[in-house]
Amino acid sequence: MALSDVKVLGSWPSPFVLRPRIALHLKSVNYEYIEENLLESKSELLLKSNPVFKKVPVLLHGDKPICESLIIVQYIDEVWSSGPSILPSDPYERANSRFWAAYIDEKWFPALRGVLAAESEDAKKAAIAQVEEGLVLLEEVFGKLSQGKPFFGGDQIGYLDIALGSFLVWLKVIEKISEMKLLTEAKTRCLLEWAHRFSSHVAVKDVMPEADKLAEFGVKLRAKILKARAIPK
Amino acid sequence: MAVVKLFGAWTSPYFYRVIWALKLKGIPYECIEEDLLNKSPLLLQYNPVHKKIPVLVHDGKPICESTIIPQYIEEIWPQPSLLPSDPYERAMARFWIKFADDKLILLALSPSISKMYRASGEEQEKAVKYILEMLETMEDHGLIGGKKFFGGDKISMVDMAFGAVAHWLGVIEDAAGLKIFEAHKFPRLQSWIQNFKEVPIIKENLTDRDKMFALLKRRREMLLASK
């Protein structure tokens, strides 16, 4: 049956690609993973499936493409409704989860990327400060939402766990570049512990990239970004 | 005592997205107008992270972000529905809402943002190019198949997310002395704009064009004079 065909078009370094993969694992849905090379030109399949943004991840369900990582996660949650819920069931809590996921993507992630792409020491320091500030805020959010349970989503991995958790290996790479710990015992103890739990979760551990491999990729990506800006490295 | 309060600003298309959702669903609410240059302590308390409008307060609980608020409203008051029930159609709707949100930031009228009427020369040219690309994508990908609205025959959250294009863009063009949207180049979009503005709730709830034009013109003159 065509509709049971599930594919994920992705790229191993992309934190956004981890999101639908983790969601599908949580729902025990089998899928085919198709790798796209981010440093080379885009495939026909990608351009056809996501003509507007031309980005990964794309979920292909039968012949229907679904784009944008968090939209895909919500789609997965709604279609495979018999599996564990990813979004909370209460509308206010859902709004809250969506709010913080949007914060992570629109405010925090650009700061993280800003460290990688920083052209000067000052720019790097400023970006690092923003990343740290964001993590302190998210530590507070974790306290409020988890209510003593292991995840943002409570007993189970939820929407916000996936939204933030997908950046954990990149965070390690950024820590390496910054030469400092950004998740610390002192300021973000709960998040630090949550990070270990999340990364070792059965639905997560097999898809997280290796930190060393990602760090190597990070160097190439930085070079590509700076070249595009035509600034000497 | 009103159960639903909405903090907003009369110039903001993001504010209107929520007004339209509430009115289409017949939900009574109390409106609190904010001076964006002098935000109230209450607003800052309800939205400490972004300090922006719109903010919906339902039974004392704040909900922020103009894409998140309508989804909350839809979940609490499902009828009449403003999002498709089919998961795939819903994912498509969310996709276009996100697209609208990402691209329309240039039409936001908050003092710190709009490059269209604030800038001139190269900066303005870039903003214009960006808007044109957005309009082309809407025309070529969003409105194919001769649909009346983005979601088909009925108005939905997607149309409301693009509300800025239907009304605010024209005022900004006039204030900045630009012509970006040419109807003959965007026939589907032109049709959509007419369909959208004919919906009674929309027609009755659009920001005062003349008032906004006067405000933008004043601001633009001040900005260009200070450079």
TrEMBL record, chain A:
Please state every residue range assigned to the domain named GST C-terminal.
90-221
Q: Name one GO cellular component term.
A: cytosol
InterPro entries in UniProt: Glutathione-S-Trfase_C-like, Glutathione-S-Trfase_C_sf, Glutathione_S-Trfase, Glutathione_S-Trfase_N, GST_C_Tau, GST_UstS-like_C, Omega/Tau-like, Thioredoxin-like_sf
Keywords annotated in UniProt: Cytoplasm, Detoxification, Transferase
Originating gene? LOC18609306
Q: Give compartment(s).
A: Cytoplasm, Cytosol
Q: What class of enzyme is it?
A: transferase
Q: Which family does it belong to?
A: Belongs to the GST superfamily. Tau family.
Annotated GST N-terminal domain residues: 4-84
- The record's EC number reads 2.5.1.18
Native source organism of the sequence: Theobroma cacao
Q: Which GO terms describe its biological process?
A: glutathione metabolic process; toxin catabolic process
What's one Pfam family the UniProt record gives for this protein? GST_C_7
GO terms of molecular function: glutathione transferase activity
Please state what the protein is called. Answer: Glutathione S-transferase
Automatic annotation (TrEMBL), chain B:
What positions does the domain GST N-terminal occupy? 2-81
- Give the matching Gene3D superfamilies: 1.20.1050.10, Glutaredoxin
Is Transmembrane one of the keywords UniProt gives this record? no
Q: In which compartments does the protein localize?
A: Cytoplasm, Cytosol
Q: Which reaction does it catalyse?
A: RX + glutathione = an S-substituted glutathione + a halide anion + H(+)
The Gene Ontology biological process terms listed for this entry are: glutathione metabolic process; toxin catabolic process
Could you tell me one molecular function GO term of this UniProt entry? Answer: glutathione transferase activity
- Ranges where the GST C-terminal domain occurs: 86-224
**Which SUPFAM superfamilies does the record cross-reference, listed alphabetically?**
GST C-terminal domain-like, Thioredoxin-like
Entries under PROSITE patterns matching the protein: GST_CTER, GST_NTER
Which Pfam family, giving just one, matches this sequence?
Answer: GST_C_2
Q: Which family does it belong to?
A: Belongs to the GST superfamily. Tau family.
What is this protein's function?
Answer: Is involved in the conjugation of reduced glutathione to a wide number of exogenous and endogenous hydrophobic electrophiles.
In Swiss-Prot or TrEMBL terms, this protein is called Glutathione S-transferase
